[in-house]
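Late entry, evening session. Most of the bench is empty. Finally got around to the prediction I had been postponing all week. Sequence below, unchanged from the version circulated by S.P.
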Amino acid sequence: MAAARTAPREVITEHRKLPLDIPEGVAPTEFYNSPCNLRHLARENGLLRNNLGFLLYRKAIGHSNLFDASIIYDTSQHVLDPMGRPVRRDQLTREENIVFSRMTKVVLQYMLENYPDPREHLVFCGEASLDATWPLNKPGVPSIRMIHNHFMVFENELLKGATPADDDNPNLTDSGHNGLFLDYLSDVYLRFFEVLDLEVLQPLPSDSGRLAITGYPQGLPSWEIKGGAETLNDGRFWKEYDLILRGFLDFYRAFFALVSSEDTRIPASATFPEQIENILLYNDDFHQAARMLRLQVIEDPTFANEIRWQPAYKQLIYRDDEGRMIVTISQNSVGNAITELLGIVVKRIDDEETYAKAEPELVRQLLELRTRLVRTNLGTAINAPSWPNGLFVPPSRA
C-alpha cells in the first residue's frame, strides 16, 4: 500500500444535536458565552470542579470522538461580562496557575499512558486564547471565551485516510497572516525566542517537529521537553512554559503596535524589554512586515476588520512522530482551533447514531481520568445525566 502523501487533513467528527436552541437575534458565540449556557454545560457535561473554579467537562461538540475533553477556568457565574473574564494564563494568580498546570499534567499523562505509541496515535493539548477587545459576535471567537485547555487524541490511520484539506482554508492560513509570519517574520521570530533562559525546554531546529502525515506545524519556534512526559512533574517546566507565553506576548504587542501606529515604545510591563529593542526594533524584516500589514489595513476594510490588535495565541504540547514531547506557539489571527496548528481541520456534523457508538468508550475514559484527578486532590466529581452515579448511561435511559 502506497504511503499517504503529506498534506493537511479534513476530519469528519460526529456529534449529538445540542439540546438547547439559540434565541433569535443572538449570535452563537454570544449565546455560548452566556452564564445560562455555561451553567447548562456544567450540568449536562461537567465531570469535575474544584474550589478555584476550574471545570473539566466532556465536549458536547468535540474534535475527536476517540478522546476529547477540556478544562476551563469557569468564571461565568461571578463575572457576568463575557469580555471581562480571564483569557490567558498570565492573568491567573500563582495558586490558580499551579492548579491549572497540575490538572493539565494529570490529563496529559493519562492520555500518554493510554495511547503510548506515536506511530498509532497523535496526542496533544493546547490553548487558544483571545484578548478581551475582540467582539463576541466576530467569526473565529472561541465558543467559550475563558482560559481553557483542550485535550485530544487522533488515530493516525484516521488522519492518513482523511481527505486532504484545502491549503487555502482560512483556519490553516489565518487569512494571510500566517503567510506573513512565515515569509517575513520567521527568522526574527525564532531569534527572539532563542534568547530565553531555558533549562528543561530545548530549542529545536525549524520545522524538525513536523508531523509526517500533515506537514504541520510550519515555521514556528518549537522546544523539546527534555525527559519527556516525566518532566511534566517538574515545576521548572511549567515556569518555562509560561515564559514562552510571556515572550510571545512581548513579540505580538511590539509587532501590532508598529502596525497600528508605528509605535516603537517598549511597554513598562514587557518581560523582555532588551530583546524587544535589540532583536525586533532594529530588524528590517520586522519593520517591512509591519509596513505591509499596515498598508493592507489602510486599503482593505474587510482585512482590517479581521485584525486582532491585542494578543491572541495558540500554545500546544504535542507528541511528534519520534515520540518527543514538543511545545510550540503561534499567533492566532483568524482560526482558533488547536487542531489546525497541527494541520487538522475538523468538520463536525450532527449524527447521533454514529456518535452513540463512540460515546460509551469516550465517557469511560473521562470517568477514569476524573477518578485520577479526584485522588490527586484536584476537584470533586459532578454527576451529569449521562453519568449519574459515575457510570455511563445512554441519554435515552438517563
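Two things to note before I forget:
The chain is about 35% helix and 20% strand.
The mean pLDDT is 88.
Will write this up properly tomorrow.
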